[in-house]
Amino acid sequence: MTRTVFVNGDYLPEDEAKVSIFDRAFLMADGVYEVTSVLGGKLIDFAGHSKRLERSLNELDIKKPAVFDDLLEIHRELVRVNEIDDGLVYLQITRGAPGDRDFVFPDPETTEPTVVLFTQNKPGLADSPAAKTGMKIISIEDVRWGRRDIKTVQLLYPSMGKMMAKKAGADDAWMVQDGHVTEGTSNNAYIIKGNTIITRALSNDILHGITRAAVLRFAKEAQMQVEERNFTIDEAKNADEAFITSASAFVMPVIEIDGVSLGDGTPGARTARLREIYLDESRKVAI
Ligand code: PMP
């Protein structure tokens, strides 16, 4: 089956979808994105992703596209026509294609934002083997720009970080700035000590994860303590458990950091419980 994608108002077969070579995202990474997971044909936390998308656009002064209010309907239509049971919907909005290359932003009156959405089919997304085996991570320096709270398509360093991890025989990397963990290459980072979950507080240093917000809320409801503060890689190596969260991985256990096993080297019980609660509760309110 040929995948149907959405480009600037049209539903098209993927091989007919086109974007200009002058698109600002292609030339300058001048665009933002969201990834929403689909479980059982329904969107997980769409409202949260939509709200963050609006904030990203505002922070970069990118005009809201005309289809902004139709995005839920477009997500649902793509899930329907592509017969996605479990998978992802990727959405990208750029400052548009002004017809030439210029550092100065184009006039929003004459240059419309580019809107692209496509689905990724991931059967069994919530049953990933990594949830049972756990992930090995390495630490790398965080050399990204200072507005990581905006979900831009500048993903070169996160991509390089994943390659550094792969080369080191690990699954992913946590980034470290001034001695403290910021976040994973494409996820938020947590450690657990006793009954307390520790994760970096929200600021411009990290992406304000939609999964993070939900998981911290569920953790408090499950009588776990939450401390939003900085932690070091050494503190993480000595933690009882560690995990990551993202819209596509949900809650995923970390069992090794820079070659050091955490606890007994297997996924922790509290992490497993958080994953279960997150998946159960999110499915209940999926739309
Ligand atoms: N941090 C970074 C750098 C990310 O790329 C992501 C995933 N896009 C996250 C955190 C997790 O955010 P979310 O839970 O909204 O997917």
Describe the structure.
It is a single chain. By secondary structure, the chain is of the alpha+beta class. The protein has two domains: 4-123, D-amino Acid Aminotransferase, Chain A, domain 1; 130-285, D-amino Acid Aminotransferase, subunit A, domain 2 (D-amino Acid Aminotransferase, Chain A, domain 2). The chain is built from eight helices and 15 strands. It has helices at residues 24-28, 46-60, 71-81, 130-133, 156-167, 210-221, 233-237, 269-284; strands at 4-7, 10-13, 31-39, 42-43, 87-94, 114-121, 135-141, 172-177, 180-184, 188-193, 196-199, 225-228, 241-246, 250-257, 260-261. The strands form two sheets. Strands 7, 8, 9, 10, 11, 12, 13, 14 and 15 form a nine-stranded mixed β-sheet that branches. A six-stranded antiparallel β-sheet has the order 2-1-6-5-3-4. Strand 11 (196-199), helix 6 (210-221) and strand 12 form a beta-alpha-beta unit. The mean pLDDT is 98. 4'-deoxy-4'-aminopyridoxal-5'-phosphate binds at residues 35, 183, 186-188, 207, 209-212, 245-247. Residues 35, 183, 186-188, 207, 209-212, 245-247 line the site of 4'-deoxy-4'-aminopyridoxal-5'-phosphate (PMP).
